[in-house]
Amino acid sequence: MVREGLIVTAVGTDRPGIVDRLSGVILDEGCNLEDSRMAILGGHFALIVLVTGDAEALGRLPSALSRLEDELGLGLQLRSTRLEPAKGEARAGLLYRITAVAMDHPGIVHRISHLLADRGINVAALDTRVTHAPTTGTPVFSLTIDAQVPPGVSLARLRSVLARLADDEDLDLEVHAVR
Fold first, then answer.
1. CB atoms within 10 A of CB 117
2. Rounded CA gap, 127 and 148, in Å?
3. Are 178 and 125 in contact (CB under 8 A)?
4. pLDDT digits (tens, 9 = 90+) for 9-60
5. If DSSP states are collapsed to H, E and C, what string results for 2-38?
6. How many Cβ atoms sit within 10 Å of the Cβ of residue 43?
7. Cβ neighbours of residue 123 under 8 Å, at least 6 residues apart?
8. Angle in degrees, CA 84, 115, 155, rounded to 5
9. Cα 125 to Cα 104: distance, rounded to the nearest angstrom
10. Which residues are paired to 81 by β-bridges?
11. CA distance 13 to 40
C-alpha cells in the first residue's frame, strides 16, 4: 500500500522551543513525525522531517505550519511524497557505515562522496562536524556516512580504494557493516 507524506524543511535562528512547537503543530493536525534530522548549524536551527497522516490531516498541515513559520521566524518548505512499501534489501544493497577523522581541510566530503558515486553507492545519511583539539585548538573534522552498497560491488575493492583515499587525505577511516 502506498502512503502519502510531506517532507518539511525549516531553517531559522536557533532558540529553545522550536522542536516543541513544530512537533506540537504536527500532532495537533493529526499527523505523525516519522523520520527527522535536526541540527544547529552556525547558530541556526535546521530540520528536515517526514510527516505522515491521512489525506485530510496532511491537507491541513501547510496552513498550520505557515502560521508557525511567521511566529517563529522560520523559512519553511514542504514537498509531497509517496512512501512506497519496502522492496527488500536486495534493491537498496547492504548498509555500511564509513567514519573518518582528520585535521580539517577542504574537499574531504567531496572526495569520499565522489568515490562512492562512481561505484553506484548511495549515501543514505551523512553527518559531519568540526571540533577543536583540546590542547592545540586545531580544527578536527569528523564524518559519518551510511552508504547503501549495491549487490555486485566488491567490498574488498571498496575498502582498498577508501584506504588509498585515506592515505592521500591523511584520514583515519573505517568501514563497518550496519546490523
1. 11
2. 15
3. no
4. 999 999 999 999 999 999 999 999 999 999 999 999 999 999 999 999 999 9
5. CEEEEEEEEEEECCCCHHHHHHHHHHHCCCEEEEEEE
6. 7
7. 113, 116, 145, 146, 147
8. 75
9. 20
10. 5
11. 9
Query: Hey, which residues does 129 pair with through a beta bridge?
Result: 142
Cell of residue 148, nine digits: 547503501
Q: What is the CA radius of gyration of the chain?
A: 20
SS3 labels along the chain: CCEEEEEEEEEEECCCCHHHHHHHHHHHCCCEEEEEEEEEECCEEEEEEEEECCHHHHHHHHHHHHHHHHHHCCEEEEEEEEECCCCCHHHHCEEEEEEEEEECCCCHHHHHHHHHHHCCCEEEEEEEEEEECCCCCCEEEEEEEEEEECCCCCHHHHHHHHHHHHHHHCCEEEEEECC
Q: Give the Å distances, CA to CA, from 133 to 39, 102, 103, 177.
A: 22, 11, 9, 29
Tell me the pTM. 0.81
- Hey, what's the cell of 96? 555500511
